[in-house]
Each structure stands twice: as structure tokens, then as C-alpha cells.
Amino acid sequence: MHEHVTHPVPAEWAANAKIDADAYALKYRASVDDPDSFWLGEAQRIDWMRAPTKIKDTCFDTDNFRIKWFEDGTLNLAANCLDRHLATRGDDVAILWEPDHPDTPNRQLTYRELHEATCRFANLLKDKGVKRGDRVTIYLPMVPEAAVAMLACARIGAVHSIVFAGFSPDALAQRITDCESTIVLTSDEGLRGGKKVPLKANVDAACAKAKVDTVIMLRHTGADVPFVEGRDVDWAEAVAGMSAHCEPEEMNAEDPLFILYTSGSTGKPKGVLHTTGGYAVWASMTHEYTFDYRPGQIYWCAADIGWVTGHSYVVYGPLMNGATTLMFEGVPNYPDFSRFWQVVDKYEVEQFYAAPTALRALMREGDEWVKKTSRKSLKVLGSVGEPINPEAWDWYYDVVGDKRCPIVDTWWQTETGGHMITPLPGAHALKPGSASFPMFGVQPAVVDPADGHVLEGATEGALVILDSWPGQMRTVYGDHDRFIQTYFSQYPGKYFTGDGCRRDEDGYYWITGRIDDVINVSGHRMGTAEVESALVDHDAVAEAAVVGMPHDVKGQGIYAYVTTMEGVENTEELRKELIQWVRKEIGPIATPDVVQFAPGLPKTRSGKIMRRILRKIAENDTGNLGDTSTLADPSVVDDLLANSPHAK
Ligand code: ATP
Ligand code: MG
């Protein structure tokens, strides 16, 4: 078995970090012992219009349920991202935009330019009848105008609902209808990895199924697209006639800021609703501490604005902190597998934040693509979205970061608004694959999945959060019962994350995967992450997904889907070797019953493995695969079906 060593905090980090080990311990204690004082302090990072005097009023018991933060405070989030920086850093770059193809000219917007663009667009929204509280659907590619659109909504108190610009017309229509928005912002086309995405055509198709009055369209690729008179508006033309002055709306801390539908890994997407004040404090605080962010640094989160990571860590968190945030239109493997690292070198990026799925895909192609770039500007590397297997973690640390950059493996959810469990680069020794320790104000607990009692010490079970934090979602849009039902009924009085977790003897948290994915082999409960990591540890394996399958004797058996490294031949010998390998690494109990080689795994558009589909294939219950509308590439499923042992 490969040895995954613990990395102590480097000396220069311990000496210079915003939060070192002692500061973490002190602040963490303060945040849970006296939340009112702690959060009153952290609230000072916001420019309030009226300062809050009531800080925390929350209760998870269903008969007295409430989540209110800073409830008598008023603010405007766009003003916090823009206006207050004008005097001090108006000419600093707010958004650096790197296009899909490196030869296309890049763009940059200073805080002053972003402020002006936001005001003009806010006035356009008002001109089109959008009022405080109205929902605005945003279906835009990764271009600066997407941030402008978000900030313009926040400026006038409209609630944005971003739909990832890769979703189908049906998925888009479903989300437009669910939040009852009558206006959609889009572009002629999107561009990803050299391929055009017909965004306007998708919107037109969605409009046939949803009630939309206005479509504002940005000309991005310049494609010739149909234009519906009376409904469609040309973005640039319309904005040119608007005033560059727009007073920010005074919003209450608990007024809605945005709706975002979860990725859909587990079922029907939920319209997660976030409010203004608590979210602002949370996004700003976590961005600063997790990345040890200092003004002047070039910071890059490679997530799409269609996901919560793009909301909190491409746009709101960095802009509140006066950062230069890089927005990347493209993909990691276009024009070639060096693209990420070339962009890092081009702008001298100091913090880089990406998903394990992208890292595993790049790892599969070999180290040369990385090694031919410098990356010496990098200081912190981040991971988000899925458990990062120790093998991929080591590769990120050794090859990408040259053993120099701490990795922050950030566990959180659309529902949590920002980081919940993560190491801080100057405070925590790193264990590859562990999300480590809770953020300030976060009280995680591990409970027995069967009866919900809290387990102490080194243990494993379901991950819950005992008390509220400012960035918590407030409801499922239009369905408060579903909110209570989904998150607070399983273990009464506690927020249920849906994830499984292990806490080791040093108090480190390890996310083991979704609790629904836990496999029970002859009475032994096993997280999918553990078996997958063992497989990825093998040199021939790039990625693996593991699910349970019915088994006469053991109750459940283990079914593993394996994607091998570029150039590896998928032979019968290798299959047997992998089965023995897992047996040796974890123990006989974890011996896979089936190993199926898979050229690709079914993933959501945010890059997460959809195990529920794999489970159906493993169970040979393929009549109804459930909601597959958020699947990135449905053809992957056909291949899996054709090559499953059941098909033979
Ligand atoms: P849905 O809720 O619709 O099924 P989703 O859970 O994939 O979709 P997100 O809110 O984007 O939607 O993802 C949150 C989930 O991602 C977490 O609950 C966890 O399972 C996983 N996750 C995120 N970050 C990490 C991490 N650092 N380590 C382990 N798992 C993570
Ligand atoms: Mg989820």
C-alpha cells in the first residue's frame, strides 16, 4: 500500500498565515462558546447600511424552527462587492477573463468598470420591469457579463437563479417554471473546449415550455440566431442607453439573494434559497481564511458560476474581499492537457481551486503536461465537490504544487453557502484525503445512522451539524416542508448533511461519500470513497466508482467500475489483479465481486459521479434509471449497459 504521509504546517506558513494553529484554536472556541460576540466581530467585514444588533436567532427543533442571522441589519451585497472598493482600489482588476482558446484576446475589468457595467445592467433590468424580490434566470457562459448580471440583480434586490449553461432546454424550463421567473439572461452561444453550445436555441426551446416574457441576449460568439421581436432584447444595444448610476437597494439581512438548484447527484434538484446578510459574512470570511487571501493576489477558482462554488468563490467571496478573481471560459484539456497550468503561469495565480474530477482526468494523462510549466506563483491549492482520493491528493501536492503548496480539501454543499470543513493552510497539518477540521462556527458531529445518537471519539457514521451558521440555506424555494423534511427530520434537532464521515484519533474528519451509497457487506458498513481510493491507488487506475449489488450470501456485494490510465490495456489479468489489490489494501471484506472496465463514468454536469445510475446497472434494474437530465454525457450509460456482466 502506498504510504500517504501527514504534512506538517510549513514553517513560513506557521509564521505568516492569517490563521495559525493557536489562532484557529482560540477563534474556533470563541465561535462556538459565544457566537453572538464572534459573529458581531466578523460582521464588521461588511459595510452595513444599518448595523445589525440582533446577531443569531436560530433553532433546529421542528416545532420552534427558525434560522435568522443579523436580522435587523440592512445592506446591499453588490455595494459590498463594488462601491466600497472604488475609493481604495477602483483601478485594480476585479475580473480577469481568460477565454476558451488561448489565442482569443483576454479581457479585464477594473472595479470601476465592473461597477459601471453593473449599474447600467441593473437599470436595464428595472427598465424591463424587474422589481425587488422578482426572480431572474441566468443562463450564461463563463464571461464577465455573468458576474455583471448577478451583481445587477443583487443591486436592485432581484433574486437570481443561475442555471448551468450546459443544461438541456427541458432542465432549463423546469427551473424557470419552478422559481416562476419571467426573464432569462443568455448569450447567442457558449464556447467550451472549442465546441459551441447553442444557448439561445436552448432558451427558445425552453420558452416553448415555460412562461417567459423577456430574454436579454448577449452577443458572444456572434452566431446568427433567431430573434423574437417583443420578447428578445440585444444586451449591448439596450445597455448603451442606460444610465451608469443606480442606487443600491437597501436589503434586509434576511431578504433572499439567490436560488440555486443543487447538482442533482441524488434526485430531483432542490431550489436552495440563500439570503443576504449571513451569506455575505460567510462567503467573505471563508474565502479570506481558507485561501489566506491578501489583496493584490491573483486568485483562481476554476468552477463554473452555474454551481455554488462559482457563486461564493468566483464572484461574491473574492469581490467582497477586493480580490482579482480569474474567470475561465474553457476546460482543462483544451487545447491540451497543460491548459490549467499555462493559465496559472500567464497570470501568476497564487491560489488555485478545482474539483477532483478535473484533477483525476489530468493525472490520467501523465506528469509531463504539468512539469513543462513553471507554477512557481502558486501558494495554495484547493479541492471541492467530491472526496479527493489520497492518490489524486498526492499527485496534486507533489506534481502540481511541487510539494510546496498546502492543499485545502474543502467539504461543503450548495446548502451550506460556503466552506464547512477544511484545513486552513497555516493552521493544520495535512492528511491526504481528509477535509480535516470545522470552519469557525461549524459544529459537526458523527451520529449512528440507525438511531441518531451522537458518537464520540474516533468513529464513523452520518455527518450532521448541530447548530446554525450564517451561510446556511433558509428554505427550498416554494417548498418549506421539503426543506424541513430533507434536512431536519432524519435526526431531529440536527442538520443532516446526507454524507457519511469518519473521525480519526486526531479529530480529523474524513468524508466517506453519500450515506445512501454506503455498502453493507455481511454486516460491515463501508463508504464508497474508501474502496474507490484503494482502486485509484493502483498505478493502472485513473478513476473508480463503487456501488453495492445484491448478493445472496453477503447481503450486498461490491461492484466496481474502473477507468484505467491512458495506454493501459484492460485485460483479464488486470481485472484479477485489481480484485486482489483491494483485498490486500483494505481486507477480504472489501474484495470486489465485479470489476467492470469503463471508458467513462456517468457524471453530473458539475463532474460528480452519479452512483445511483451505477447502482441500477449493478442491480440489473435498468428499466427506469431515474432523472438523468443532469447527466453530462448520456452515451456513457449505453456503453456501461452494453458491457455489464448482466448483458453477457
Ligand atoms: P444533489 O444534492 O442534488 O444530489 P450534490 O449534493 O452533488 O447534488 P452539491 O451541493 O454541489 O450538490 O454538492 C455537495 C456534496 O458534494 C456534498 O454533500 C458531498 O457529498 C460532496 N462534497 C463536496 N465537497 C467535498 C469534499 N471536499 N470532500 C468530500 N465530499 C465533498
Ligand atoms: Mg447534495
UniProtKB/TrEMBL annotation:
AMP-dependent synthetase/ligase domain location: 83-465
Residues engaged in binding Mg(2+): 536, 538, 541
Modified residues (N6-acetyllysine): 608
Organism: Alteraurantiacibacter aquimixticola
Name of the protein in question: Acetyl-coenzyme A synthetase
Acetyl-coenzyme A synthetase N-terminal domain ranges (all copies): 27-81
Key words, A-Z: Acetylation, ATP-binding, Ligase, Magnesium, Metal-binding, Nucleotide-binding
Gene3D superfamilies (alphabetical): 3.30.300.30, N-terminal domain of ligase-like (3.40.50.12780)
Presence of keyword Ligase: yes
Family per similarity comment: Belongs to the ATP-dependent AMP-binding enzyme family.
Post-translational modification: Acetylated. Deacetylation by the SIR2-homolog deacetylase activates the enzyme.
